[in-house]
């Protein structure tokens, strides 16, 4: 939650008005309001309407963030890990020609106001990307970014996991990111609470089905239906 500081707003408004060489009367005329209104705004007694506020910015030739200041109130946010476990494992078909199976782990770290996530190699514990986990009862979003100076390529990846459908601690979702050369990539992804061997059966579940491929050609986009449980789990 944020609190708007109207007194700070009034002080800033006065500074910007004077910087434009405008008296309160002149500023009021341009805004189409009474001079007394300008005085009350600058003294922090009242606030303008949103329409008047935007017109102020236009007249003073300033950006909105130049004239307002937000004060973030102290808060304790209860961020819950939807998986109730500190490490989960993800599986998807690799973009590399070297291997068709890609397996990593996500280490979830509880912070005061967020869930921090590290994208880690299961082979050598290298941290590839860091990010955040947000969720509700239906879906979990993993948002990763990699912009360190020593990294050869800027990366930003979003993973969406369907929390409504699972089988033995396995969830399905999608990965949206970029491959070499900034080619956009969308894949099916499997998330597990347990460290599983990446089997050929799992690999088959992660492939685009003939039906999905036909729909892609028809609709010019890919609707990945992770709610369709039968596509991923045997009954």
Architecture blueprint of SSEs:
Blueprint: E1 2-4, H1 6-19, H2 24-31, H3 35-42, H4 50-60, H5 64-67, E2 70-72, E3 87-93, E4 101-110, E5 115-121, E6 127-135, E7 139-146, E8 155-167, E9 170-178, E10 184-192, H6 200-205, H7 210-219
Antiparallel strand pairs: 1-2, 3-4, 3-10, 4-5, 5-6, 6-7, 7-8, 8-9, 9-10
Helix pairs in contact: 2-3
Characterise the protein shown here.
- The chain is built from seven helices and ten strands.
- Helices cover 26% and strands 33% of the residues.
- The protein has an eight-stranded antiparallel β-barrel. A two-stranded antiparallel ribbon has the order 1-2.
- The protein is of the alpha+beta class and 235 residues long.
- The protein folds into two domains: 71 residues, lambda repressor-like DNA-binding domains (434 Repressor (Amino-terminal Domain), Orthogonal Bundle); 145 residues, Porin (Beta Barrel), CATH 2.40.160.
- Helix 2 packs across helix 3.
- About 3% of the residues have low confidence.
């Amino acid at each position: 939650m944020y609190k708007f500081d109207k007194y700070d707003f009034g002080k800033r408004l006065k500074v910007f008005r004077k910087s434009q060489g405008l008296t309160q009367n002149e500023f009021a005329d341009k805004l189409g309001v009474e001079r007394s209104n300008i005085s009350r705004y600058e003294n922090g007694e009242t606030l303008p309407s949103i329409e008047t506020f935007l017109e102020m910015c236009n007249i003073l030739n300033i950006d909105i963030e130049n004239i307002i200041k937000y004060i973030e109130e102290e808060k304790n946010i209860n961020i819950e890990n939807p998986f109730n476990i500190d490490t989960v494992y993800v599986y998807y078909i690799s973009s590399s020609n070297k291997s068709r199976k890609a397996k990593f782990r996500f280490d979830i770290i509880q912070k005061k106001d967020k869930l921090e996530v590290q994208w880690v190699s299961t082979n050598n514990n290298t941290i590839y990307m860091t990010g955040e986990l947000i969720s509700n009862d239906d879906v979990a979003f993993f948002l990763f970014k990699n912009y360190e100076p020593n990294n050869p390529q800027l990366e930003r990846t979003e993973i969406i996991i369907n929390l409504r459908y699972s089988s033995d601690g396995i969830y399905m979702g999608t990965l949206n990111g970029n491959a070499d050369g900034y080619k956009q990539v969308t894949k099916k992804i499997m998330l597990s609470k347990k460290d599983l061997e990446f089997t050929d059966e799992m690999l088959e579940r992660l492939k685009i089905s003939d039906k999905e491929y036909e729909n892609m050609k028809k609709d010019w986009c890919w609707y990945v239906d992770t709610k369709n449980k039968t596509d991923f789990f045997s009954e």
